[in-house]
Design brief:
The protein is mainly β and 423 residues long. The chain contains 5 helices and 21 strands. Helices cover 8% and strands 53% of the residues. The protein has a 14-stranded antiparallel barrel with strand order 1-3-4-6-7-8-9-12-13-16-17-18-19-21. It is elongated. The termini are far apart.
Length: 423
């Protein structure tokens, strides 16, 4: 078979479109923990992550940095969350498939000190702004040509300063450096060439800078109001793509049974605007409400550049539309101080979906989420220990698109702990 014969075959084949789909969409569907997920602090998580107007522990750096002024001396607080997702897919013909069991452990670590000063606080946060997570599907299953593995990890260093302008008003400001890493895998349909599936792999990583700020205002003793803003962060990814087990009839185009190329792309992670209200009807009870907008419209399109191209087989640089939407979350949480040492917590978060039907795929089958949480905290002297559990219920979603039509059911268990010491 000549090169021209192969090209004519590829123009109308599933192979060419599948290769192109794999390259363009791999970094377009990061599996991201959205705003209602509890990966930034165990106390806040126990309250349904309604924490913008509370922000009275070191995790304030992730929620509202102005809250650091509520602390005195030096505080260190760290821990993590076990994120345990599960997804099932059902095809239009009624066949079904489940993801493999996985646990992802996004950690957090915060340190804050007043450095002996009255109105200033200095802090450093190391945490996962958009989480660590993903899904793993069978390499022989229903979803294999759209996704078999999609995993992303983000981690940020966030130095912060807060200043108490008035007894009732504090402000905070921080700089963010975020590092992100993505790995993805798809199978490639080569049945029309009389050969088994090929395999596409991508790995990429990169970093970028942003900032965050916050305001905490207490107009009266029982009420506090919070505002926080976290800027966009543009991450420039560099990495490589690989194609394995290429069909013999395609190997003349690729120079063998395997192909690799360096690649580069960028992702603009969204800015986030948060508003919070906390009411303390008694000294023992705190009720908190949050509204948050996450501007996922920054994922409007994606462009990937390949160093080595095989345009005859659809392996070339290009762009694709994503059309993600801005989304709102609404949260309510409460804390009750049962004793001087023991606090009981609960909360709920409503997290709207961001991914439209036409770009939804099994790597990130986004849907509206309802999170219910319970938790407690225990203090003794300068030591604090916080525990929580959150159940993430996703609304079932059915889509018809050119990627993979079908229905998705999602559920996530979150279990976390935080421990700290004040001195």
């Amino acid at each position: 078979m000549s090169i021209s014969d192969i090209y004519i075959l590829l123009r109308g084949s599933v192979i060419r479109s599948q290769f192109l789909f794999s390259v363009l969409f791999t970094l377009c569907f990061p599996v991201i923990v959205f705003g209602g997920a509890p990966v930034h602090g165990a106390k806040a998580a126990g309250m349904g992550t309604a924490f913008v107007a509370v922000s009275d522990d070191p995790s304030a750096m992730a929620y509202n940095p102005a809250g650091l002024t509520l602390m005195k001396g030096t505080d260190i607080y760290g821990g993590g969350t076990a994120v345990i997702p599960s997804t099932s897919f059902t095809s239009p013909s009624g066949e079904s498939e489940d993801t493999a069991f996985q646990i992802f452990p996004p950690p957090f670590l915060y340190a804050v000190s007043d450095a002996g000063l009255k109105d200033l606080r200095f802090g450093l946060a190391i945490y996962c702004p958009f989480g660590i997570g993903g899904r793993k599907w069978s390499t022989t299953g229903l979803t294999r040509y759209a996704a078999t593995k999609d995993q992303i990890a983000t981690v940020a260093a966030n130095p912060t300063i807060a200043y108490q302008v008035l007894p009732s008003l504090s402000i905070g400001l921080g700089a963010d450096y975020m590092y992100a890493k993505d790995e993805a895998q798809r199978m490639v349909n080569q049945a029309s060439l009389g050969f088994g599936d090929g395999q596409f792999d991508l790995k990429g990583s990169g970093g970028g800078w942003g900032y965050n700020l916050g305001i905490l205002f207490t107009p009266i003793e029982k009420v506090s109001v919070g505002f926080a803003y976290r800027s966009t962060i543009k991450v420039n990814f560099k990495g490589d793509v690989q194609l394995k087990n290429i069909a013999p009839s395609l190997q003349p185009l690729f120079g063998g049974s395997e192909f690799s190329s360096d690649m580069s792309t960028s992702m603009k992670f969204p800015d986030i605007i948060s508003f919070g209200l906390a009411y303390r009807p008694t000294a023992k009870l705190t009720i908190a409400l949050d509204l948050e907008e996450i501007k996922w419209s920054t994922f409007g399109s994606s462009t990937i550049t390949l160093q080595n191209e095989v345009p005859q087989a659809g392996i070339s640089s290009g762009s694709t539309e994503l059309n993600w939407k801005n989304m709102w979350t609404a949260k309510i949480g409460a804390e009750y101080k049962a004793t001087d040492r023991l606090s009981l917590r609960g909360g709920y978060a409503y997290v709207a979906r961001a991914v439209p039907d036409n770009t939804l795929d099994p790597g990130n089958p986004d849907s509206t989420e309802h999170n219910f949480s319970l938790g407690f905290g225990y203090k003794k002297g300068g030591l604090v220990m916080d525990f929580f559990y959150m159940a993430g219920f996703f609304e079932n979603r059915t889509v018809t698109n050119t990627i993979l039509s079908g229905s998705y059911k999602n559920f996530v268990n979150y279990v976390g702990v935080g421990t700290g010491y004040s001195f």
